[in-house]
Amino acid sequence: MTRHWPLIFGLASACAHATTPDGASKPPTPASSVAMAPIPSGTASATALATTAAVPAPAPVVSVAVEGADFIVQAKTLFRVAACGPTGELPSRFDAALVARHCDELRRAYDEYKKAWLDVAEPFIAALRPKDLPGIVVYPFGGGDLVSALATFPDASQITTISLEPAGDIRPIDQLAPERLGRELAAHRSHLERLLEKAHSRTDNLEKESQAELPGEIVFALGALVVHGGEPVSLRYFRMSSDGSIAYVTQADIDSAAHHPKALRALFDNAELRFRKVATPQAPVQVLRHIAYNLDDAHLKQDPALLAALTRVSEGGANGKVATMTKAASHLLWNDHFGLIRDWLIEHTDWMISDSTGIPPRFAQPAGFSQDTYGTFDGPAPFGLFDDRDANDFKHLFASEPTRDLSFRYGYPDRNGHAHMIVTRRWTRR
Positive or negative, the Cα torsion across 75, 76, 82, 83? Predict the structure, then answer.
């Protein structure tokens, strides 16, 4: 999901909230550039520095061998306090009764979401999803929506979401004053409830989340873990080079930028969250990488790091292909100013699921894709600027396909409130 990008094309990424003094418990480790490729579950580079974080009982200590500063201690606290996860510690300075009330309300929202959407959508999508799909998922305009990504691709080894919003600095949880906790929890709970109600991130939610004292993107991701029975294993931040390699942010990087607010905020734009099933050491470790980036052509031409990084990611998939998804994306993939990311998706996608904000037929079909439709589409919902050509093409596509009922929304409804969904697949998957 994306906010409605300024003037549709988007002019700049949102600023992260102000930072506080460092609360990370990890010592500085040397920075190194590594390929932005999938990380096999339970494995790590022999040259990486081992770091160990204690996981609350009954799970044993987990060793995660990756370079960079690991903010797993803060992630576990936020998981417990803001996302209401079953593991993690409640700091003694926080009002336990306040957190309990917050969690009672949030768990009701989780339960309603599971009953109304997840229990319906997940098995339906599972029946459509090929068994041999790549385990690598790319989700453009997907900020804050790990919960839908895991419903769509529950077994993905790596999910990359991209949006304007930065991941955000998690360190303020260490310094948050007790009297400010209630306000923060109420704000994040409200945004999570709206996310779960709509089954996609609303523009205004993402903007407000990015301005909160605690990092909204991280809270959204941790909430998704609660819904899907996961827990965090590590949280690191990273930067991308023009060749697509990444370098994890170290404590030394943070210390060097401490007196340069803009540079310091930028260190927390992109986050890598590793997670697994709760208290299940043998479960595979999955990876979410969230990247803050403007996906319009002007920005991608100015800085090619993202496309290079995504191409490195795709090298982990079969024949360089990945699974993709997009929804509630303001019809940006219809727009000529988003041609580069659309071209990348066309070249590297094996199988895609979307609402009508996915790849239009005039681009998909000549590139060797077929498109299967579900639900009803009478025209696009009035979000963003859309092309009448593509609106008509999608209407004709739905009219030409067999009627396939859809009992849940996947992103936007159509202009008359109907649920609809499109599966875009290569002809080789007939």
Answer: positive
User: Would you say the C-alpha torsion 228, 412, 107, 98 has a positive or negative sign?
Assistant: positive
Half-sphere exposure of 235 (CA within 13 A, CB side): 27
Q: How far apart are CA 218 and CA 143, in angstroms?
A: 10
Asked whether the whole model's pTM tops 0.90, one would answer no
Residue located via tokens 């593509």: 390
216-227 and 178-198 helices, crossing angle to 10°: 60
Q: Is the pLDDT of residue 48 over 90?
A: no
- For 105-164, the pLDDT digits (tens) are 999 999 999 999 999 999 999 999 999 999 999 999 999 999 999 999 999 999 999 999
Mean pLDDT, all residues of the chain: 85
Give yes or no for a contact between 90 and 100, defined as CB atoms under 8 angstroms apart.
Answer: no
